[in-house]
Amino acid sequence: MSDKKVSRPCHHCRSRSASAPADTSKIHYEKFWLYRHCSSLQQRDRQAQKAGQLFSGLLAVNVVFLGSAFISSMIFNKVAITLADVWILLSILKVLCLFWILYYLLGTSQQPHAVLYRDSHAGAIWIRGSVLLFGSCSILLNVFQIGYSTILIHCKSRVEIVFPTIGILFICTQAYFLWHHSKDCIQVQHNFTRCGLMLTIATNLLLWLLAVTNDTLHMEIESQLREVEERFAGKAPSSHPRNDTTLCTCPNTTICKVFQKGYILLYPFNTEYCLVCCSVLYVMWKNVGRRISHHHTPHVKPKFKLQGVVFGPLLGTSAVIIGACVFMMYQIQATSLVPSPQVFVIYYSYYIVLLPLMSVGAMIGTIIHALEKKEFDTLKNPTRSLDVVLLMGAALGQIGMSYFSIVALVATDPRDLLNSLSLSYSVLLIFQSITQNVFVIDGLHRQRTPPAKEEDTKEEQNREAYSQRRMSVLELGQEIRKASLSYIQTYSDLSWKRRALREISFFLVLCNIILWIMPTFGAHPLFENGMERSFYGYSTWFVIVNFGLPLGVFYRMHSVGGLLEVYVTA
Fold first, then answer.
1. 118 in helix, strand or coil?
2. In sequence order, what DSSP letters do the residues of 457-486 get, joined into one string?
């Protein structure tokens, strides 16, 4: 009887922390009918995990190919497959994803021992904040689309109202799901969870692909670009109907114009939302069935502190302020009645000054990494692996656009002032992206620097001493002076390598923030200058830019997270 009691798992022991070493009584080993004859339990679990990933991946591939076939047919044969047909398919996929997410929230995650482990590296606060920010903008975008379609209901399909309504429900549910469960390492219903995650990833990818190739939006923006061209020429804006779809135009009412302009302005946020959600969902898919050992869980998690940096914040803040002024000037001039070409000169000049500074800083940081004696962190980390892939993949967007622009500019007239500035901008952008990727990826693979215990102990003692006594006006001045001396002492105590890495990382963080803000909120000179558009043709160049620009914005946003990680670990 005593042996049976010892071997039987204790019910009260099941509530232990997920970071503790795994108890075999809690582990739900994966099973798959192909590997039911494996002699070893661990080997059967490993093979079943690989089979589950394979079959869920095949599900996603088939869904993506089906949706891509619909979207491609809509582009090349608009009579047989219309935009409404694509929306119906995506609505069905959204509803399926909604049912699965609700089942996960109410069923799977509520089971005993469903979430024994949580990945501390997954679902960083900045990326979950991005989900909420871009999700809110996407909801507002769908509201504008509903309002715009309601006003033009006499010439638009009812699907154009139903599709964004389902989209609002899908965005809200998915954002809640990712905010609360992005760190889960689910231990039950492995294959069903993997298939649900992959279906959701495929749906987001198809939504992103549709956003890149949506002809209706292309024609709306094309009409606005023609207005800009006519303003350059000093002509009054006129209409250029291309086909029957352009006859369904917005009436001369303020509310309709607001819906149309807001829809076009918020459109890039929807593509960013789809990309961010795909990255978070992929990490969750990799973490299904993952069992994190005790040594994987960090005992002391480094915190962000603005100590030990002086020049980085000063230079970065200067870059942000100047960039904000350039952005506002560009927006005012681009929307004026007669835009001045000088605004493009100022815009490109700002980039030509800033990008070399960022490249030099990244190269210096890479050299310092090479001089350091830190060991590489070789532990398995799906989040870090995904960060590297996303940095490399997202950089291809702006690198690809830059190469297309270089070919067009060299083949036409590179000696023109505006063309030469645009050419320099494209070359420097390629170089800066490469150097920054090398610096960030090298920094992400370095082991964390242990915090200085003596400094932390002194700070705690000082805080306790300060709280125990009452400060008069004179004592307050002394405390301020001591705090300043403490900051200077902390700055001098850091080794020059760590100090330089922190300065460079913080400078690059602020620079990437302003380079994220400018294209996100409407500064698109590649649309307005007309050089590349006239070389490649409107349709081709618009698809290139609409494909590369969201990736470039996503790259800047993702670089901020990677650089903050490098700053914290320095």
1. strand
2. HHHHHHHHHHHHS---HHHHHHHHHHHHHH
Task: Give the C-alpha separation, 561 to 453, whole Å.
Answer: 26
- Two tokens at 56? 């869920």
What pLDDT digit, counting tens, does each position of 501-558 carry? 888 999 999 999 999 888 877 667 776 667 787 888 777 787 788 788 878 888 888 8
Alpha helices in 235-310 (DSSP H): 254-287
Taking the C-alpha atoms of residue 564 and residue 66, their distance in angstroms, rounded to an integer, is: 39
**DSSP SS3 for 250:** coil
Burial 483-493 (b: 16+ CB within 10 A, else e): eeeeeeeeeee
Degrees, nearest 5: CA angle 129-132-138: 140
- Provide mean pLDDT across the span 271-296: 81
pLDDT for the residue 15: 37
- DSSP 8-state assignment for residue 186: E
CA torsion sign for 262, 265, 268, 273 is negative
Q: What is the value of pTM for the model shown?
A: 0.72
Question: Where does residue 13 rank: exposed (0-12), middle (13-18), buried (19+ CB within 10 A)?
Answer: exposed
CA-based nearest residue to 160, from 172, 151, 169, 173: 151
What residues does each domain of the chain span? 47-234+249-291, 312-448+488-569
Tokens representing 80? 């047989």
Cα separation, 132 vs 143, whole angstroms: 16
Angle at 548 between CA 67 and CA 530, to 5 degrees: 120
Beta strands of 14-143 (E only): which ranges? Answer: 115-118
Residue of 213, 191, 210 whose CA lies nearest to 59: 191
Alpha-carbon separation of residue 114 from 152, 184, 211 (angstroms)? 49, 9, 36
- 239 Ramachandran zone, left/alpha/beta (phi>0; psi -120 to 50): beta
With bands split at pLDDT 50, 70 and 90, how would you rate the model's confidence at 434? very high
Helix (H) or strand (E) holding 185: strand 184-186
CB 369 within 8 A of CB 441: no
C-alpha torsion sign, points 322, 327, 328, 330: positive
* Straight-line distance from the first to the last Cα atom of the chain, in angstroms, rounded to the nearest whole number: 56
**Could you tell me if 50 and 31 are in contact, meaning their C-beta atoms sit under 8 angstroms apart?**
no
Contact at 8 Å (CB) between 442 and 369? yes
Q: Is the pLDDT of residue 287 over 70?
A: yes
- Among residues 292, 227, 289, which one has the least CA distance to residue 30? 289
Percent of the chain with pLDDT over 70: 70
Averaged pLDDT, 228-254: 55
3-class DSSP state for residue 56?
helix
